[in-house]
């Protein structure tokens, strides 16, 4: 399985971005998925998860109410709509299938999100 994240960029505070995660292979639809981010000097953190069918979502407190995770299993693609962005959202964003410890697949290259104040 390969994961390819895209959609990042430079945006002003208050702006929006939509990230995409394309997953090769047929197992995408069988797995819950998540968006992670890693800011400079910090550990990677899980910010949002979605169940295999898309019927259940969970958000970390810092992004709750601003980010929306979704998926299209027919396209093997997951999305993260990010609104009301803040400078503290600046990070490299990754997708993967969360496990209790770690993640299921090798990490992709991520996509850089930079929010200017």
Q: Can you tell me about this structure?
A:
By secondary structure, the chain is mainly β. It is 0% helix and 46% strand. The chain has a six-stranded mixed β-sheet with strand order 2-10-9-4-5-6, with no helix packed on it. Strand 4 and strand 5 form a beta hairpin. It starts with a strand and ends with a strand.
Summarize the structure.
The protein is mostly beta strands and 117 residues long. Helices cover 0% and strands 46% of the residues.
What oligomeric arrangement do these chains adopt? single chain
Model regions low in confidence, pLDDT < 50 over at least 5 residues: none
Radius of gyration: 13 Å
Helix content: under 10%
Strands in their spatial order, largest beta sheet: 2-10-9-4-5-6
Largest sheet: 6 strands, mixed
Distance between the termini: 37 Å
Q: Can you count the beta strands?
A: 10
Mean residue pLDDT: 96
